[in-house]
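Progress report, Aim 2. The chain analyzed during this reporting quarter is listed below.
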Amino acid sequence: MRLILAIAITFLMGTSMSQAADRFPIIPPDQMNAEQKKLFDAIVGGPRSQNYGGDAVNRVQRGGPFNAWMRSPELGMRLQAVGEYVRFKTSIPQRLNELAILITAREWTSQYEWHAHHILAMKAGLDPRIAEDIAAGKRPASMKEDEAAVYDFCIQLHRAKKVDDANFQRVKTLFGEQGVIDLIGVSGYYTVVSMTLNVAEVPVPDGKPLPLKPLD
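Predicted structure tokens for the chain:
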């Protein structure tokens, strides 16, 4: 019985990977047009590469939204520039920025996004219990003041499509008006990323189990 189940899981995983590749087949660098190559070089040579090590080319082609964005390279170039800002130049502290990204990934059940940024959130010092509660669709039981402010702002923004005076003022008091806009920016950018990943069906790397369960 276990053998049959293992074969079935392997088949399904292989089918999933095939479907993902079918949607947006990998474009090798030597087959890219000039605009695609410009986008590719900007991503591989940009600040994201510090997280890729010597695997930058493979990571850009097979992970994240970038291979899909090659289909509209001008849009992709503009989006990746926004991504550089909200990742590396934002006024929001990294731990809280990654918290906002995890909230967005959970709201969209974006498996790859959660997988990639859960690692970064832990490195940035986010309490693993906070991530576990968010993954389960619950308001984390124990948050610092700044974490609670970011969580309540982002959750209300995603779900109510607006933010009330209390949540606005909390974030403004902590991070200023720039912080309010930067928090909107990271939430919006990773919504686009999550949309792309979900439509492109980008799989979690190395056949790892999906980190997010469906929410009721």
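The chain is about 70% helix and 0% strand. The chain has two domains: 34-89, 92-197. These observations will guide the mutagenesis work planned for the next reporting period.
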